[in-house]
Specification:
Number of helices: 2
Number of domains: 1
Shape: globular
Structural class: mainly beta
Distance between the termini: 32 Å
Order of helices and strands: HEEEHEEEEEEEEE
Number of strands: 12
Mean pLDDT: 86
Helix content: under 10%
Strand content: 35-45%
Strand order of the largest sheet: 4-5-7-8-9-10-11-12
Amino acid sequence: MHRPTFFVLCLVATACDGEGGPIEVPPPQCNDLSTTLVGDIPYNQWPAGADTAHATMNVMAARYVASDSCKEGGITTVKVTGEVPWESLPLVTTPFSEVGCGCQEDAAAYSADSEYDHLGQYDGGTVFVEDGYEPGAQSVTVFTGTALFGSSAPFLVRSCGGVQLEPYRGSAYTSLDVVFRIDQAGQRSGSYILANEDETVECVLTNWVIEAVE
């Protein structure tokens, strides 16, 4: 996901140089988002569509099998968790002020959370990739943040997260990212992304079928 680039013009050299050379200006942080529990907000101030997105999120927890683009017609098993009572759902009260914040792991076809009607944010879910095509995507649990959206977004729910892979796994990659979505029609989609310094491989998961409800 492209992030905006910021340039700093130095008018006084000593303002930009430290003892070890130029002072590095850190990139903007996605820390402007603030949330408030539904139970602490009057019902007439609940954002439109939040109840629909919440109901959708609460049916995503399941064990799935899906067609894996990295397996030449094979399937991968994925277990998704993430459920919270309505009164405990964190609603977005102050959205991200920066462009490109939230779920930057997703495919180029989709924008970050800050680009859509971001209604809620729950950070207590997981995606467990059981048997991906490569050791870095086998029996790995990834903790996710789950964003809830209004009707103008291409999905009602999207969970994203990533993990650094330990050497003992014997993977050719150093990181694993996951994305899980439920669109406005209730259809599941997603992918897992393996990366190292030299390459990134996205395994797209389609034709999701529920094997068991968690």
